[in-house]
Design goal:
alpha/beta; Quinone Oxidoreductase, Chain A, domain 1; Rossmann fold; 2 domains; 6-stranded parallel sheet; 25% strand; globular; binds NADP nicotinamide-adenine-dinucleotide phosphate
Length: 322
């Protein structure tokens, strides 16, 4: 099968096409022929060994000390089941499915545990839309609902709202009943209003501190707002939820125990099937819609990475595989 592989950490040019054996569905797994995948900030961090906040060594220990352990990146996929291993009852060949496989989706085929983060694609979604959903949608859901414990009527500030996670965070926060203030650059503000933001702030023209409001929650998906700045914008019992964290934030966790006031919350998303189903329910109710920013053929994966690394793309970067 065609696959995009990297054998050394480094720039986008390290990702090269290769022919690999097609994987086989083992017990409890399905084999998916991929139609669409995506390149995310997580793929870029793994490829470049750009682990945030002084976690370089930890990242290398987890993902390969001298060279990457997994040579095919890509977590999200949308495609068609072509074979089922023994014991699989939930899916059958021909089913359109999507989800989060962890790695290996920058290729024509991937195997996924049937009980893992995989679900059938509703007829209303294209393959590209389905592939654009899990990374941002699951992160937004888990960090707002579980880590922030966002309640209806609360005020939430989302810097980096036009990014891969932010575009979903705006919608999920609205769906959870919050008042949403979204932060992005000038050209992205209309999109954020269209997705449901109550207020928008153009970070190129206005200081966040000038917004004149105390928030219950700040969700910082992209990592451009340090907690030390963000906490000044929060109510005394507010929560600052950081998706990117490093040694500095661990230090702040210790400090806040002594100091009190707004809480810093960090965590890691678990990518669960049940949460994928919550997102599908939100789509059915019309309160969530997938966003596709860029659509490129698999062969243009290096260009896809450059878009992601620019931190200024228009939304999820989709790879057309099939
Ligand atoms: N902890 C976990 O379990 C977990 C799970 C998922 C993801 N993550 C992490 O979360 C992050 C997700 O990032 P993402 O995909 O949302 O990022 P992204 O798509 O790169 O988003 C970048 C955002 O930052 C804004 N921005 C760019 N430059 C800026 C600047 N100088 N000042 C202020 N804002 C600026 C952009 O706004 P404009 O384009 O409007 O300029 C855009 O909204 C990744 O680092 C990933 O590793 C963690």
């Amino acid at each position: 099968m065609r696959a995009m592989t990297y054998r050394r950490y480094g720039p986008a040019e390290n990702v090269q096409p290769a022919n690999l054996p097609r994987p086989k569905a083992r017990k409890g797994e399905v084999l998916v022929e991929i139609a669409a995948s995506s390149v995310t900030t997580a793929d870029w961090r793994l490829r470049a060994s750009a682990f945030p906040g002084g976690f370089w060594l930890l990242g290398r220990l987890m993902f390969g000390l001298f060279r990457p352990r997994q040579q095919v990146l890509g977590g999200e996929f949308a495609g068609r089941v072509v074979a089922c291993g023994s014991g699989v009852t939930e899916f059958a060949p021909g089913d359109r499915v999507f989800g989060f496989a962890g790695h290996g989706t920058h290729a024509e085929f991937v195997t996924v545990k049937a009980g893992g983060c995989i679900a059938k694609i509703p007829d209303s979604l294209s393959d590209a839309e389905a592939a654009a959903l899990p990374f941002g949608g699951l992160s937004a859901l888990v960090f707002l609902r579980d880590f922030a414990q966002l309640c209806p009527g609360e005020d939430v500030l989302i810097p980096g709202a036009s990014g891969g996670v932010g575009l979903y965070a705006v919608q999920v926060a609205k769906a959870l009943g919050a008042n949403v203030t979204a932060v992005a650059s000038t050209g992205k503000l209309d999109k954020l209003r269209d997705l449901g933001a109550d207020r928008v702030i153009d970070y190129t023209r206005q200081q966040l501190s000038a917004a004149g409001r105390d928030y219950d929650v700040i969700l910082d998906p992209a990592g451009f707002l340090p907690y030390t700045e963000g906490r000044k914008l929060l109510k005394p019992n507010g929560r600052f939820v950081a998706l990117n964290f490093g040694c500095a934030e661990i230090g702040q966790l210790i400090l806040q125990k002594l100091r009190g006031g707004p809480r810093l919350v960090i965590g890691v998303n678990g990518d669960k099937k049940a949460d994928l189903e919550v997102l599908l329910e939100m789509i059915k109710e019309g309160v969530l819609r997938p966003v596709v920013g860029h659509n490129l053929p698999l062969e243009d994966i290096q260009e896809a990475y450059r878009l992601v690394e620019s931190r200024r793309r228009k939304g999820p970067v989709i790879l057309q595989v099939g």
